[in-house]
Amino acid sequence: MTENSESTETFASLGLSSPLLAALTVLGYETPSPIQAACIPHLLAGSDVLGEAQTGTGKTAAFALPLLERLDLASSKPQVLVLTPTRELAIQVAEAFQSYARQLKNFHVLPIYGGQSMVVQLRSLARGAQVIVGTPGRVMDHLERESLKLDDLRALVLDEADEMLRMGFIDDVEWILKHTPESRQTALFSATMPDAIRRVARQYLREPKEVKIRAATSTVATISQRYWQVRGTDKINALTRILEVEDDFDAAIVFVRTKTATVEVAEKLEARGYAVAALNGDMTQGLREQVIDRLKSGSLDMIVATDVAARGIDVPRISHVINYDIPYDTEAYVHRIGRTGRAGRQGTAILFVAPREFRMLRAIERATRQPITPINLPSREDVADRRVAQFKQQILDALGNEELAFFTDVVAEIEQENELSGREVAAALAWLAQKDKPLQLDPREYPDLPVAQERSERAPRENRGEILERRRAFSDGKLAKYRIEVGRAQGASPKEIVGAIANEGGIEGRFIGQINLFSDFSTVELPVDLPESVLATLRQTRVCQTRLNIRAFADGEAVPEREHRSRPAREGGRDFHRERGDFGDKPFRKGPSSFGKKPDGFAKKPSGFAKKPKKPQSF
Hints:
The protein has 619 residues and is an alpha/beta fold. Helix content is 37%, strand content 15%. The protein contains 20 helices and 22 strands. The strands form four sheets. An eight-stranded parallel beta sheet has the order 1-8-2-7-6-3-5-4, sandwiched between helices. A seven-stranded parallel beta sheet has the order 11-12-10-13-14-9-15, with helices on both faces. A hairpin with a 2-residue loop joins strand 19 (542-543) and strand 20 (546-547). It is globular and about 105 Å long.
């Protein structure tokens, strides 16, 4: 069955409990998006779901809310597993679960992904968490170690399945699926449905309810869309700076997520001299109409509103829409910016984006099929120049439109009585006129901020050809142990060691094996046939300001009994950084899993971890 549901009026009508509804109210969620309205009832009923939806349609809440309802909070064992293609998405989904569960006692969610300390993850898993959100490679690591046990798993979510397919993780995903209880509930979400994803759905989902959501894609061509990356100052100061230098500013709607924020932001803007009012769902219809009428008449410069409160507003003089808080889904963004650029007029939409929200920014660009260009905050000089230009124009307007004979006489009297020139009197009058909005800005109140730099491609290294030639030399994969003179006492980490060896020695991550950290030295497995030129380079390479001074580890050389095994080796070599690159912009794992064929049950755990008796597999 395929659904493309219209939004239900309230979350309460979907059957969610009061703790979750209270959390949604705090977060500013007012009405469900179409995918939430379609998926939540199915997942609450225990059905499998196959969802086709773009990023930015609100699908995280669509699966998180109903799965939170079905948790046994008396147990700290993993009951929900969410697989994501990247560590960034894993963190984002985990944070969403935490936000929705803020009213639930004893709830714990744990993100696990490559590049994070394995020791930290092992400790967190030992403490217990009802929801695990992870990337396929790291989830496989923990399943093989038996540090992650899924005996009590109730639900599994595959988020952005087509992205996992594109990154070569689909074999890993299937391996994980085979090691989960058959009784689990499964939800698969994908922006597209290629044959490989359909095959996984047919094999692992049981009579799934199909939900297909098309995100809104229509935006007005007359709207200029820009974004500012939130950095270095609070958003109120950023907003006032931006508005001061906008040439065509007339009136604006500032969108925030919560009713409380409408009042807080409106009060701060009013303190900065703007005529502004809040507009939210707690206001009566009479008060709401009064605010809109004031905006139409020009007695208000701005209103600060939530999505629902601003629906249906049609005020021709609205020149700007400010997305002070980024919306939860792309559809809300389209509705917001539609308040400007009406009837062929030009409009401007400005979006404030925190670094962690860039994923939503890209989703909005895909959904609207229009680029959103970055802007920098205006400098102190920009704001001052704008104020001076406006001040000059006010004087010229007064000279051209007002009767000034009386004031000319007053100025003449001041000149005569005090032996002053007309320029001196005019300067004093200008100072009086501008003192509430100074033309000379105090650097303490208007500090200049660093300019946001466009992301650019890194220039190739001069010896790039030499590095590539070295890499081609390590083809047989045989490894030997080497000693480097940097360890825990110097603050070294496996990530820093791998990065230094990969970048300076030109050795790919897949040719770097086990790393053991000790107090004042470490051991690392590298190709047995390293040429002297590479060794010479690595001897001079520094980690934590310490030269590696690499040398072959002698047979029988003593090592401390207690190792810090940070990078476990695996038979046949190991591609350590499986998720998005610690050393480049491409995933190191391509195509099928590097684990090779899996035997029945889990692989043998590395030494250094306590062995536990295996339980019979019940999958």
